[in-house]
Amino acid sequence: MDEHFGKRIGFVKRLYRYYNEKSDEELRFMRAQLVREQHMLGNVPLLTSTTPIVFLIFGTQLGKYFPHDSLSWVVAAIVCILIIVWSINHNFRKKSRVHLDLYLIEEIQKERSQNSPRPV
User: Where are the transmembrane segments (predicted)?
Assistant: First the structure.
């Protein structure tokens, strides 16, 4: 288990240092952008869940271009499946990166708020 985290700890440390060097105002803007991006990540699952419905609706029209006995139908189906798998993978990688960035920014903001002198 330590080997798994050992490979990635350098990246997280560099990212933490990068965010730690930013001012409070920059961190607020970065956090706002990341929250916006986080809320936009649901589009890919929506795309993948509606793709079969599109094929059902336009199935007769697709039958004209891809006859059932041709190889082009198989190629089109494989390309479609590869695009869907890639988009799901990309979506979850992006989602995990956004969560990591948000977590680091929130931790830095928490540390700064605890270490700053409070007005009386």
Answer: 40-58, 70-88
Q: What 3-state DSSP class applies to 118?
A: coil
The predicted model scores a pTM of 0.73
With b meaning 16 or more CB within 10 Å and e meaning fewer, what string describes 47-83? eeeeeeeeeeeeeeeeeeebeeeeeeeeeeeeeeeee
* pLDDT (tens place) for every residue of the chain, 120 residues total: 577 777 788 889 999 999 999 999 999 999 999 999 988 877 776 777 777 777 777 777 777 777 777 777 778 778 878 888 888 888 889 999 999 999 999 999 999 999 877 665
Contacts of 11 by beta carbon, 8 Å cutoff, 6+ apart: none
Residue position matching structure tokens 């929506």: 46
Give the Cα separation of 107 and 95 in Å (integer): 18
Give every CB contact of residue 76 below 8 A, 6+ residues apart in sequence: 66
